[in-house]
Amino acid sequence: MAATCVLVGVVGKPNVGKSTFFSAATLKDVPRADYPFTTIQANVGVAYLRTKCPCAELGVTDKPRNSVCVNGTRLIPVKLVDVAGLVEGAAEGKGLGNQFLDDVRQADALIEVVDASGSTDLEGRKVPAGSHDPRKDVEMVEREFDLWVYGLLARDWDRASKAIEQTRGRIMEHVANRLSGLSVTLADVEQVVLHNHLPAERPSSWSSAQLMDLVSGMRKLTKPSLVAANKCDLPTSAANVERLKQSGRRVIPCASEAELLLRRAAERGMIRYVPGDASFEAVEPATLSQAQSDALAMVDARVMKVYGGTGVQQAIDEAYFTLLSAVVVFPVEDETKMSDKDGNVLPDAYVMKGGSTALDLARKVHGELAETFLYAIDARNGKRLSAEHVLGNRDVVKIVSSGKRG
Ligand SMILES: Nc1nc2c(ncn2[C@@H]2O[C@H](COP(=O)(O)OP(=O)(O)OP(=O)(O)O)[C@@H](O)[C@H]2O)c(=O)[nH]1
Ligand SMILES: [Mg+2]
Asked: What CATH class has 329-401?
């Protein structure tokens, strides 16, 4: 996981609703249509991570600056990328080929969107609802990703591995260098090589199957993923959601179109709805047109009542909190008032990778704070925290330094 900006990618075969998911999450208008390869260039946008704001628990009235607080729910901006659809053979250039792969190289986690209704074939063409098994889509996307990475390693494996053996070089460094564009570190490679019991001193003896296992092990480690079982508003989806769950993956039923409708209606003041809520209510039901009431009633009956929400916000939250063990931390300058130096209470919420320390937070707030770091204070109980203290979700922390900013 990258240290500074965390990136989540929305991936999948064509025509499953990736751009609809992206639009719903970012409220950014991007091309969406009922045919494959609508998206060619990747779309990058701002989605929001949802967490309970500490304001209510601490009994303070907050004044957010880098995020918003809606009735005690803090929404923090995070980056999301929507990429072109991926088809079988992409690793060799089929469809839009490597472009997809290039766009997700930097992603720290993946949301794999599938058409849970089973109404699009492996290439995204329309087929009768329920006739396609979406488990195949997930397998295909992961296989193509692995084949692409395998290609990066295998093309000169014989030569490179023998040269490394002769010079007593380190094969793991070679692999990490080759894959550095994929946010793969030396520690990641070492972990997977060890786990797969590969003889590090004899890389020329590694078989193609062992190389492929190394690649997929690295994908699981460096690109953790969940499945967004999209189009769950359609009747053929329920059975496929169960099938997908039985395949042992983390599966979230999603209704991206419904989420887009709800967010737009909320934006226009028609309904009260915070992304991720299990229900919504009309602000003034009498002012809605028949068509608006019908559309909202349909979302309520087919999605909210059945699945307890549209799943879009949940998928984003789980990508961060579960796959990446991210934490949201609230830095303050005055720990007694929970504010910055101008009196803004709980102004900022930072998304940080799991395992981040008080010193990492100082670094994120300002480089100088890290250089002159003395200690931190947990604003909830006034306790001193060391530089190595691992931060927890929703921690409110003051950094004390010897510099001007301390
Ligand atoms: N019923 C239903 N249809 C959806 C949902 N989400 C998307 N769709 C439809 O699926 C079709 C494809 O949507 P896109 O968002 O363009 O799909 P994509 O995966 O980005 O497609 P490409 O860019 O071509 O790979 C459109 O007709 C959408 O209206 C959903 O939640 N329910
Ligand atoms: Mg698209």
From this structure: alpha beta
